[in-house]
Amino acid sequence: MSEAVHSGLDLVSAGVAFVTIREAFKPADREHPFGHGKIETLSSLLESFLLIAAAAFIAYESYSHFIHPTVVENNMIAITAIAISLVISWVVYLHNKKAGELTESSAIQVNALHFFADAVTSVGVLIALILIHFTGWLWVDPAIALVIAVYIFMASFTQFKITIRELTDVKLPDEEVEAIKKSLEPFKNHILNVHDIRTRKSGVNRHIEFHLIVCGKMDVNSSHKICDDMEGAIHRVIANSSVTIHVEPCGQHGKVKAHCERSPNGICEKEEA
Length: 273
Description:
By secondary structure, the protein is of the alpha+beta class. The protein is built from seven helices and five strands; from the N terminus they run H-H-H-H-H-H-E-E-H-E-E-E. Strands 1-2-3 form a three-stranded mixed β-sheet. A two-stranded antiparallel sheet has the order 4-5.
């Protein structure tokens, strides 16, 4: 019964993901200039809550069966049903996992987590049913259920923290920020400084902003060309990224002297990195 409830929540989760992903991938519009990615994140949060609810229900059922052991009837029918469920859940998990990796969709990744947890719980239930069939140990049923509940709770809580970080606009992972900085290194001979790098994630999209200091005597076309090249370099290392660059002339920040071929005396001021 606990496994049936868990599988039912998986169905609800898949339905929510099906609807929200279609909305999340719509292009930006007047009402949503930054896109619809947060809809997908909200979907992931809801799915995480569903998993936590499933873990709580299974734990409650486990406790009840410890206190009042129940004889499992029609064991072979139960074993057959769980075996079929296990195969289906594993196939769906592999499909969702691949789709989640290709699209970087958090909703699909959480949905894959649902079906992976479903497959794991099915294995546990199958082991319990087989042991009960051959040994008659009724305590195995609630014991396995409790282990399943703990596993599901841990997996769902991890995903819950990820979605909360995204909803509160926490910066991109350190490795992605470092990749952005490395992609800008080839431009050192054409610029003076890059500072105030800000990043966040919305659905599958990354939003990246920073200030760029160039020589004050550089014309608009030249600075715009550098910005375009920088955006292209970032797009090559960070998929689905939206880049905003604020260009500033030299001498606006700090008092550290730096060589600048475009200034009359060969010196420009730039902000400390």
